[in-house]
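Case study 2.
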Amino acid sequence: HANVATANAVVQVVDSTNSPPITSTTIPDQSYTVGDTITADPADYFTDADGDTLTYTVKFADGTTQPWTDFVSNPLPADFEGTHSLTLIATDPSSASVEQTFGVVVA
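Prediction:
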């Protein structure tokens, strides 16, 4: 008798297509007083279908950017008094991103 081996193979198909983050709701314009800290939570305004952890960056009208966590960890300084247009950018680990612009008034 010849020995016959039987092999079973399992093939798993993985969909590696990344879904970019999307806006889940519009960021409302906000008002603060000098010395306040920004209290908006970006996770309230963005979502990712893949469940990826998103990182957030704020872009100022002059084009400069700062990590959201750095921006919100300090009280608003007197030189930030006035009306500002800020863009909040949500980025997933694959570098796909989406952004929303909203107004901030600091008095």
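Residues 68-72 form the longest helix (5 residues).
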